Amino acid sequence: MFPCPAGRYGDRRGAASESGGCANCEAGWYCPHEANTNPRAVQCGGSGVYCIIGSTAPLPVPEGHYSTGGFEGVPGWPDNTTRTWFAPAMGGHFAVGGRLYQCPAGRYGNRSLESNPLCEGPCEAGHFCPPGSVNASAYRCGEAYQPPGYEQRGIIGGTNAGLPSTDARRLFDAGIAGIRAPGSAATGSVSSTLLGPV
């Protein structure tokens, strides 16, 4: 009788051949030892690793990528520890430790696979860049900017009574931090403008 090898499992103790009675362990999990009887022997781990079907150990997420799949957003699984693959960070974002973040306000990023939290660089003088900007001159200073999720609710006493959602307000406030006077140098603290994982 042959025990199932690492990365595979069997519902019985062993089989007459390596292929008989053994199947691949599930994606998002790994089976580090032979003679596994559970397709979900060990959860893959944090966001910096992923496990494909038949994994014997977690694989590191490549630089500039973020992990995907698994029990993301499933009640009872507050931290996704069963990631199954990865995807590249696209323009306006960077990826560190398998997590995806927006480029911070006041900076822009137009490169794929970005892993630098400062993204490609600061906005051009006389412009501001809200979080997730893909070019250095996203908006001219003084230009109207309406953050995603902002809803116009009417006029009260001659003033704009737009009521943004909490997230939109946070984006708007972060975007204001990127506004600079024409000819001024780049300013602002990246740590104060990071919005966290997307």
Task: Note down, in words, how this protein is organized.
With 198 residues, this protein is mainly beta. It has 2 domains: 1-88; 90-186, no CATH class. It contains 2 helices and 16 strands. The strands form 8 sheets. It has a two-stranded antiparallel ribbon. The protein has a two-stranded antiparallel ribbon with strand order 3-4. A two-stranded antiparallel sheet has the order 5-6. Strand 15 (155-156) and strand 16 (159-160) form a beta hairpin. The longest helix has 11 residues, at 166-176. It is elongated and about 75 Å long.
Task: Show the helix and strand layout.
Layout: E1 8-10, E2 22-24, E3 29-30, E4 42-43, E5 49-50, E6 59-60, E7 65-68, E8 85-88, E9 93-96, E10 99-102, E11 107-108, E12 121-122, E13 127-128, E14 139-140, E15 155-156, E16 159-160, H1 166-176, H2 190-193
Antiparallel strand pairs: 1-2, 3-4, 5-6, 7-8, 9-10, 11-12, 13-14, 15-16
Q: Which of globular, elongated, flat, extended, rod-shaped describes the shape?
A: elongated
Which stretches are low in confidence, meaning pLDDT under 50 for 5 or more residues running? 153-198
Q: Biggest β-sheet, characterized?
A: 2 strands, antiparallel
- Succession of helices and strands: EEEEEEEEEEEEEEEEHH
Strand content: 15-25%
Please report the distance between the alpha carbons of the first and last residues.
49 Å
Number of helices: 2
Q: Helix content range of the residues, please?
A: under 10%
Strand order across the largest sheet: 1-2
Structural class: mainly beta
Mean pLDDT: 76
